[in-house]
Amino acid sequence: MEATRELLDKGEFHETSVEDVAERAGVSRATVYQHFPSRLDLVDAICDTFSENPDLVALRDTVTLPDPSRALDETIAKTVGFWGSEDTILEQLYGATAIDSAARDLVERQLADRRGEMQRLARHLDEAGRLRSGVSRLEALTQLMVLTSYGTYRELRRQGLSDARAIRHLQATARRLLGR
What we know:
mainly alpha
């Protein structure tokens, strides 16, 4: 898995074979196949490690912090932290979704997980009376999904914002669009 992560970090995984991965890992091709039936299973194994990412772990508890405004700010910070810490791998996986069903499945699972967390946050903001007048839970969810998307993160990075500046920008935008 470490060899796969290195290849993903370098942007070389999609051009490599199982033999290349095995060679980089210092094991035989048969050993790799014994643990991972296909090259895509290697990527899935890497993606499974995302659930151990500290920002992603913290995100689950963050969306229901007692102070809804803090929950909103921390959710954005943890999401950007996750995108930033896994950016080199995610950039390749998101780019491969058109041609790679495993990458597409990962992105869809990630999207569903994030949608669930953002629904919890929208409900929390609504129940605490912290949504701007006229903003429904559905509108709040939609805005949260856009603000916390990987695409939004990448665009802010393309604009030259550091992760810290991106966090501040997204938090201010979220407060302007959603909060009281």
